[in-house]
Amino acid sequence: MKKIIGLPNPAVKKVAFTLLWIFILNISCKKEQSTEHNSPPSQTPPTTDSVSIFTNQKPTGQTENDKKGAGIEFGVKFQSTIAGNIVGTKFYKTPGDSGTRTAQLYSIDGTLLASKAASNETDSGWQSVFFDTAIPIAANTTYIAAYYSSLGNYILTAYGLKTAITNGPLTALADSTDGINGLFKYTNIPILPDSGYLSSNYWVDIIFVKGGN
């Protein structure tokens, strides 16, 4: 006589199904954890192999302010002999420079290419601001690096751009090479600076990475 195997009752089937579902979930979670563990780390500011105009130079003097409480934008015209990417800008800050600052990059015709509010500033020294996206620049083309000071605080070196300042492929143009240089503008909002005073260096710089178009 053939032995008849009975089907499991509903309670047994329910338990088996639950155990199978837990097993599948465990495998799925392990795969997700493995993927997360092996995912590439979040991007950090690309400072490796970057170049700036200023190296060991530092301004002398104290924080200045022409119009108490009024904003001012400062800028520098620069060129690179090779194509590459601007990943951010820099500005020099002296003690007592309060307020907020916004870093910007413009083309020579005044088109805003990038803008980013500064954060995590130190009390003094060079402050770096990295843009959310690297901006490609062409060789031998003039651009303007700038920053806006909400309370109009700044440091300057008069006649500092009477002659060009060069480091590697980068040059801060001498005043009158491609119009005025050592730029400023009294303004209540970040905007292209378009005035000059005594070929002054307002200590604006860029963070440049070689390569690109």
Radius of gyration: 29 Å
Number of strands: 12
Mean pLDDT reading? 84
Tally of separate helices: 1
Question: Which structural class is indicated by helix and strand composition?
Answer: mainly beta
Tell me roughly what share of residues is in helical segments: 10-25%
* H-E order: HEEEEEEEEEEEE
Outline: globular
Describe this structure in words.
- The chain is mainly beta.
- It has 1 helix and 12 strands, in the order αββββββββββββ.
- A hairpin with a 2-residue loop joins strand 8 and strand 9 (170-172).
- Residues 1-7 and 28-44 have low confidence and may be disordered.
Task: Provide a concise account of the structure shown.
With 213 residues, this protein is mainly β. It has one helix at 10-38; strands at 50-51, 72-80, 84-93, 101-107, 112-117, 125-137, 143-149, 165-167, 170-172, 183-186, 195-196, 204-210. Strands 2, 4, 5, 7, 8, 9, 10 and 11 form an eight-stranded antiparallel beta sheet that branches.
Task: Map the helices and strands.
Blueprint: H1 10-38, E1 50-51, E2 72-80, E3 84-93, E4 101-107, E5 112-117, E6 125-137, E7 143-149, E8 165-167, E9 170-172, E10 183-186, E11 195-196, E12 204-210
Antiparallel strand pairs: 1-12, 2-7, 2-9, 2-10, 3-6, 3-12, 4-5, 4-7, 8-9, 10-11
